[in-house]
Amino acid sequence: MHSSEFNPHSDIQSLEGKVFLITGGTAGLGSGAIEAFAEHNPSHIFFTGRNKKSADKLISTVQSKFASVNLTFLECDQTSLASVREAANKFLAQSNRLDVLMCNAGVMGIDADQTKDGYEIQFGINHVAHALLIKLLLPTMLETAKLPDADVRIINMSSWGHKQAPSYGIQFETLKTSQASLGGMIPGPRWSRYGQSKLANLLYAQELAKRYPQITSVSVHPGFVMTGLYDNVNFLIRLPALISSIGRTVPVDQGHYNQVWATTCRKSDIINGQYYEPVGVVGKDISKAAQDKQLAERLWDWTQEELAGY
């Protein structure tokens, strides 16, 4: 399905009674998804971010169009697992139901650095923080899945960029460093680090689907969308991504379509554990590492061990 064939206004059925939690919802694809859901009468949309001012502006904008929608901002810094836990606890204090967890927040191609907990920063934000949120909210999602006509989903934002991970996949041994030289010169360390994190998002959805089949867990590539993720990346650093995207860019105003499709399509139209390209197309352009079941299991085991204290 081409993005122009998917129309969130007409193709999304009623979301009445459903509760959503979207990470990184204050801008970009996250805010686009929130607006798309708000139009279809959900029970409650929770969203995370770091900027309360941006959150307040979004709430005002959405409620000016859809006055009855319940929107709640949960402040969260994904470089801090303590902050992720606090956001999860705030959600759990307000809702005993969760139909959709959209792991949308992310960074791309940024300088070598580490999170507050010591993880390589792209891997820490894009994978580890989301994995903790999933862990903390999973009991609620499993309970929701027992309800009549339940359709509980976890949407992991991956990317075509998963192919930029090192050929062996993930360098577990150095994930608690900045991995400043990961992957060598091509496509460049920052893109290797990004690819590694997006590969983790893809593999983790596979493992969630295998271990919790009562929840539909998928990974999605939004397409090549020139969102705010590019704002702090200079032209030369951006060049590999720009070259890869030639002829395949998705308009910014349609950038959220694939993740919204994955959230709202009929359950019979989506395959648990699958990776989707825009819009609703099973991804065939995936790396060998993305098909490595042993790597997926190792990532799962590593992640559970890292989060055991939470």
Characterise this structure.
- There is one protein chain.
- This protein has 310 residues and is of the alpha/beta class.
- It has a single domain (3-301), classed as NAD(P)-binding Rossmann-like Domain (Rossmann fold, 3-Layer(aba) Sandwich), CATH 3.40.50.720.
- The chain is built from nine helices and eight strands.
- The chain has helices at 8-11, 28-38, 52-65, 81-94, 121-144, 189-211, 235-244, 257-264, 293-306; strands at residues 19-22, 44-49, 71-75, 100-103, 153-157, 216-220, 275-277, 281-282.
- An eight-stranded mixed sheet has the order 3-2-1-4-5-6-7-8, sandwiched between helices.
- Helix 3 (52-65) links the parallel strand 2 and strand 3.
- Helix 4 packs parallel to helix 5 (121-144).
- The chain is globular, with a radius of gyration of 18 Å.
- The chain starts with 7 loop residues before the first helix and ends with a helix.
- The model is unreliable at 227-231, 235-239 and 241-248 (pLDDT under 50).
Keywords:
alpha/beta; Rossmann fold; eight-stranded mixed sheet; 9 helices; 8 strands
Summarize the structure.
The protein has 310 residues and is an alpha/beta fold. Helices cover 39% and strands 11% of the residues.
